[in-house]
């Protein structure tokens, strides 16, 4: 037999059939799955790949890495919008999932990847051990989630959108794509998704032909932060480091952001046995965005995708925190996509390609620090277990100290030599744990030596993006023949305006409904002067755009919106305040019922008409930015500025009433910044707090079992709650117990059903019925009546007497000692407590009627009902508008 086969094989070879078969194989398009954290550089990579010849490179699916630079709800919008612009709604998009990993290591289906594997339990909340290295506000997740505000100004919006429990999950999309045929996987974020896939589907491994990774630093020496030769005094920063983690290089100079996102996952991927090509900092450090490239790009924007990328790059440059943009912003993921595509096209051994020099190296990924086998409590795979999780070896490479945050004392040993190496892609020789990996070491120079563009890839990048082939169809404005930007502002004429109110919200679902309600209250009763937004609660700060859209819908583009802090009091890292701890906010789930759903308003945000106002990274030196951008006038105001403007513009003798529907971060900061606040504040209505009268009378903090009696709004920023309770302000507390009295979905839906006569009543009805349906359907949504209860604050504020509220004045104190099992608990404390008015009951029937009737009123109704209506207006000549 064997001889026979050998002879046949020989014959085939002689006839050249072998060669022919090989060529057929090579011309089949490569099926690509792209796993991305949707950072700016990621969509440079994505758009570049989409422009390539589809008979060669065919992107089948995109999965979103949700524990790095973006948040799931915003990232998925960005991806859908880009694909719509590029006419590629056929590409599957996977995000999130509600599965978990049990304490014994069983991986359940559909783990959403919101947490690094080491922190992944059965839910989607958990610690930010690694992600805390990523800034949250400006220059971090806020800017990346919104793409500096450019997504909404530029990208068109198609039909696809996230919808709770219907969204294809990351793991499902991976399974579907990879089981459909040989697949090449690109990983340009952290490795959680792919690692979980590999750990739970070992039989599908054989279908992954190759893995291309942007990440790590093997022999790299960071070129940024080096002192100039002739400098008198200079503190070298990351000069010569292997890694690039600029927010935490003093604790870990070895690691690159993507790998730090989940070192254990990266270990699983690199050690999977699947061929891996790594494009680490070694190579990307040699392709900074130079001024010549930037200028050349500026002159070469012949497609929408080229424009979008250039505008993004420009805002990244204009808001860069120092003047070193051209030497410290590199092509990371975009370069990786070029190198990978070139390697695949060439199909040569040793990964020969047009753009990078390659070399085989034996590497591993450090996941814990030596000495191994010493359990110091830092390592959840081992701490307090008789059998290590995933059956890891007791004194193996995963068994040492695992870095705990950016100020982990372990990483700062006394003699200052001991730094943590978590996530280091370390070269090893003769070590059984090393894996042979093809590594890009250097970007190749431009072959035309007289060109100003000094890298070969620069040429390809600009050429490909500007090709007419596979180009974008339109941008947001050119999609519609009669597009027009309108700001709606009311004219109250001679009407006497009612009490001045400032609404402070954390953008939970109930807050949006409260906002709609407040906008319906006759302006003679309530004059909503401004909105303050705290980024420390149920939504990510980028969700501020939904507030703008609701104001636009209701014709109130005149109301100022101020963005508050992104950290609870005391949480920013004192030595680098752009990053900080998640001690309290980690109690909020990332997935269903949590941030993902707030950030998309349970899938309804994209139905709202789109406001021309939005978050933007535009800024000016006057307000502390490093430099003026092109449109500093568009700058997003801060909460404190909006507050100061309002309090300054008050008529003599008049005062402001504040309603808070979230953590008290903004109010505490206002108190701390203004000496004579009680002279301008009439009253503060605080939705939150729980006064427990028995052991069974529990709070609502379901994600912190050790803290049975706290309520979320108080817990999320206990220090702020303390500042507020210690202030001179007159406070009315609307605690959990009275909220619970009116938290009946069937009742409120029944009332609204009868009143669905206005767009806002329809919208509210749809949102509340979705919440109710989800609550009945899935355990992740069991807490949704919390959001229903929040609406009470706005209704009490608007029609106090109608509801016949009963209240008692009680001395209330809040625990804020730093002990999470007590923090945020409000107690009656006759000695230290502050006297506050505590609402104990309202007339429920009147409450429901009051709420539903007002939403159904034709007065102060929406001026534009939906995005669909907006599209119709933009598609018909102005004369035909009715
Ligand atoms: C795309 O690739 C296929 C297969 O390699 C090739 O036959 C075709 O000519 C290419 N098309 C273009 C426009 O380069
Ligand atoms: C792990 O625990 C789950 C229950 O959480 C159980 O169903 C499963 O059989 C256990 N697996 C192992 C390997 O012990
Ligand atoms: C959309 O494209 C048009 C035509 O190229 C351009 O004039 C406009 O500025 C673009 N929109 C944005 C927001 O850049
Ligand atoms: C610094 O401390 C580490 C252990 O903490 C030790 O291994 C190392 O030798 C010390 N280096 C110097 C220069 O003292
Ligand atoms: C890398 O590892 C392989 C075995 O996996 C070994 O044959 C080779 O010599 C190693 N190369 C280096 C440079 O250590
Ligand atoms: C403050 O008020 C002035 C004058 O009305 C206005 O121009 C400015 O935009 C306001 N600033 C904020 C942050 O609301
Ligand atoms: C505080 O405001 C009140 C009323 O406007 C005023 O009478 C008083 O002088 C102010 N106090 C201080 C310390 O500014
Ligand atoms: C608080 O309210 C009481 C009663 O309504 C009033 O007498 C008092 O002046 C108020 N205090 C402040 C600081 O506004
Ligand atoms: C109540 O407040 C006082 C002083 O503000 C504080 O010392 C005390 O610890 C608080 N009590 C509790 C139980 O939090
Ligand atoms: Ca990335
Ligand atoms: Ca809220």
Model description:
Residues 32-368, 501-848 form the Inosine/uridine-preferring nucleoside hydrolase domain. The chain is α/β, with parallel strands linked by helices. The protein folds into 2 domains: 30-224 and 240-367 and 402-474, Inosine-uridine Nucleoside N-ribohydrolase, Chain A, CATH 3.90.245.10; 499-873, Inosine-uridine Nucleoside N-ribohydrolase, Chain A (Alpha-Beta Complex), CATH 3.90.245. It is built from 30 helices and 20 strands. The strands form 3 sheets. A 9-stranded mixed sheet has the order 3-2-1-4-5-6-9-7-8, with helices on both faces. A 9-stranded mixed sheet has the order 12-11-10-15-16-17-20-18-19, sandwiched between helices. α7 (170-179) crosses α8 (192-200), α17 (509-520) runs parallel beside α28 (792-798) and α25 (745-753) runs parallel beside α29. One 2-acetamido-2-deoxy-beta-D-glucopyranose binds next to loops.
Q: Quick summary of this structure?
A:
The chain is of the alpha/beta class and 882 residues long.
Which spans have pLDDT < 50 for at least 5 consecutive residues?
13-24
> How would you characterize the largest beta sheet?
9 strands, mixed
Report the CATH C-level class of the largest domain: Alpha Beta
Within the CATH hierarchy, at the fold level, what is the topology of the largest domain? Inosine-uridine Nucleoside N-ribohydrolase, Chain A
- What amount of the residues lies in strands? 5-15%
Give the total of beta strands: 20
CATH architecture of the largest domain: Alpha-Beta Complex
What's the structural blueprint in terms of helices and strands?
Elements: H1 2-15, H2 17-27, E1 30-36, H3 40-51, E2 57-64, H4 72-85, E3 92-94, H5 141-145, H6 150-154, H7 170-179, E4 183-187, H8 192-200, E5 208-214, H9 257-260, H10 263-270, E6 276-279, H11 281-284, H12 291-298, H13 304-318, H14 325-328, H15 333-346, E7 356-365, E8 425-427, E9 435-443, H16 456-466, E10 499-505, H17 509-520, E11 526-533, H18 544-553, E12 561-563, E13 572-573, E14 576-580, H19 595-599, H20 639-648, E15 656-660, H21 665-673, E16 681-687, H22 712-715, H23 718-725, E17 731-734, H24 736-741, H25 745-753, H26 759-777, H27 785-790, H28 792-798, E18 806-814, E19 826-828, E20 834-841, H29 844-856, H30 867-875
Parallel strand pairs: 1-2, 1-4, 2-3, 4-5, 5-6, 6-9, 10-11, 10-15, 11-12, 15-16, 16-17, 17-20
Antiparallel strand pairs: 7-8, 7-9, 13-14, 18-19, 18-20
Helix pairs in contact: 3-13, 3-15, 7-8, 8-10, 17-28, 21-23, 25-26, 25-29
Domain Inosine/uridine-preferring nucleoside hydrolase: 32-368, 501-848
Keywords: Signal
Signal peptide: 1-26
């Amino acid at each position: 037999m064997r001889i026979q086969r050998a002879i046949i094989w020989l014959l085939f070879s002689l006839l050249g059939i072998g060669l022919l078969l090989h060529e057929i194989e090579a011309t089949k398009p490569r099926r690509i799955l792209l796993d991305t954290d949707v950072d700016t550089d990621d969509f440079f990579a994505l758009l570049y790949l989409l422009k390539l010849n589809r008979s060669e490179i065919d992107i089948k699916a995109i999965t979103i890495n949700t524990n790095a630079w973006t948040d799931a709800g915003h990232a998925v919008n960005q991806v859908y919008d880009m694909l719509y612009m590029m006419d590629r709604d056929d590409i599957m998009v996977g995000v999130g999932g509600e599965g978990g990993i049990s304490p014994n290591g069983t991986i359940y289906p559909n783990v959403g990847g919101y947490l690094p594997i080491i922190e992944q339990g059965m839910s989607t909340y958990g610690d930010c051990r690694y992600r805390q290295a990523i800034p949250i506000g400006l220059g971090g997740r806020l800017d990346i989630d919104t793409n500096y505000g450019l997504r909404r100004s530029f990208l068109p919006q198609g039909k696809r959108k996230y919808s709770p429990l219907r969204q294809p999950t990351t793991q499902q999309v991976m399974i579907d794509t990879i089981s459909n045929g040989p697949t090449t996987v690109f990983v340009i974020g952290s490795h959680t998704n792919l690692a979980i896939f590999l750990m739970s589907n070992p039989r599908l491994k054989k279908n992954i032909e190759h893995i291309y990774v942007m990440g790590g630093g093997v022999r790299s020496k960071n070129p940024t932060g080096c002192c100039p030769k002739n400098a008198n005094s200079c503190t070298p920063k990351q000069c010569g480091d292997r890694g690039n983690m600029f927010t935490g290089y003093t604790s870990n100079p070895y690691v690159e952001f993507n790998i730090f996102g989940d070192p254990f996952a990266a270990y699983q991927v690199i050690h999977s046995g699947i061929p891996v090509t790594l494009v680490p900092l070694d190579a990307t450090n040699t392709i900074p965005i130079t001024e010549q490239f930037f200028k050349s790009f500026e002159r070469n924007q012949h497609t929408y995708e080229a424009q979008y990328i250039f505008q993004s790059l420009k805002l990244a440059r204009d808001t860069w925190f120092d003047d070193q943009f051209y030497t410290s912003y590199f092509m990371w993921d975009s370069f990786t996509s070029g190198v990978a595509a070139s390697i695949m096209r060439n199909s040569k051994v040793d990964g020969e390609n047009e753009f990078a020099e390659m070399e085989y190296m034996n590497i591993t990924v450090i996941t814990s620090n030596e000495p191994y086998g010493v359990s110091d409590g830092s390592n959840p795979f081992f701490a307090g277990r008789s059998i290590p999780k995933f059956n890891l070896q007791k004194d193996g490479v995963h068994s040492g100290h695992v870095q705990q945050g950016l100020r982990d004392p372990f990483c700062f040993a006394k003699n200052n030599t001991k730094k943590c190496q978590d996530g280091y892609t370390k070269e090893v020789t003769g070590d059984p744990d090393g894996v042979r990996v093809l590594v890009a070491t250097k970007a190749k120079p431009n072959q035309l030596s007289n060109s100003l563009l000094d890298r070969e890839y620069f040429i390809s990048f600009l050429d490909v993006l500007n090709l007419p082939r596979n180009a974008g169809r339109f941008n947001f404005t050119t999609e519609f023949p009669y597009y027009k930007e309108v700001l709606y502002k009311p004219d109250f004429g001679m009407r006497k305006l009612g009490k001045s109110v400032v609404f402070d919200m954390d953008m939970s679902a109930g807050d949006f409904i409260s906002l709609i309600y407040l906008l319906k209250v006759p302006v003679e009763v309530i004059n909503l002067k401004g909105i303050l937004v705290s980024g420390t609660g149920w939504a990510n700060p980028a969700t501020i755009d939904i507030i703008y859209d609701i104001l636009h819908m209701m014709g109130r583009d005149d109301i100022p919106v101020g963005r508050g802090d992104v950290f609870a009091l005391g949480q920013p890292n004192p030595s680098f305040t752009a990053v900080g701890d998640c001690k309290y906010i980690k109690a909020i789930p990332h997935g269903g019922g949590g941030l993902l759903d707030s950030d998309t308003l349970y899938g309804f945000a994209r139905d709202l008409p789109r406001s021309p106002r939005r978050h933007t990274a535009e800024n000016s030196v006057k307000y502390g930015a490093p430099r003026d951008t092109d449109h500093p006038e568009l700058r997003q105001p801060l909460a404190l500025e909006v507050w100061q403007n309002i309090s300054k513009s008050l008529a003599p003798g008049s005062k402001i009433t504040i309603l808070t529907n979230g953590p008290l971060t903004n109010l505490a900061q206002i108190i701390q910044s203004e000496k004579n606040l009680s002279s301008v504040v009439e009253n503060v209505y605080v939705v939150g707090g729980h006064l427990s009268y028995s052991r069974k009378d529990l709070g609502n903090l379901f994600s912190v079992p050790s803290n049975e009696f706290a309520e979320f709004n108080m817990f999320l920023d206990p220090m702020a709650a303390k500042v507020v309770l210690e202030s001179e302000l007159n406070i009315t507390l609307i605690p959990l117990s009275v909220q619970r009295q009116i938290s009946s979905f069937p009742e409120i839906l029944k009332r609204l059903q009868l009143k669905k006569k206005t767009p806002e009543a329809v919208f509210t009805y749809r949102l509340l019925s979705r919440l109710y349906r989800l609550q009945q359907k899935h355990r992740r949504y069991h807490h949704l009546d919390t959001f229903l209860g929040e609406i009470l604050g706005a209704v009490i504020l608007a029609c106090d007497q109608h509801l016949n509220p009963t209240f008692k004045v009680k001395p209330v104190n809040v625990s804020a000692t730093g002990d999470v099992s007590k923090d945020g608990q409000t107690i009656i404390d006759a000695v230290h407590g502050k006297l506050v008015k505590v609402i104990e009951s309202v007339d429920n029937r009147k409450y429901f009627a009051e709420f539903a009737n007002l939403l159904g009123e034709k007065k102060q109704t929406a001026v534009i009902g939906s995005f669909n209506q907006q599209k119709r207006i933009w598609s018909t000549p102005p004369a035909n508008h009715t």
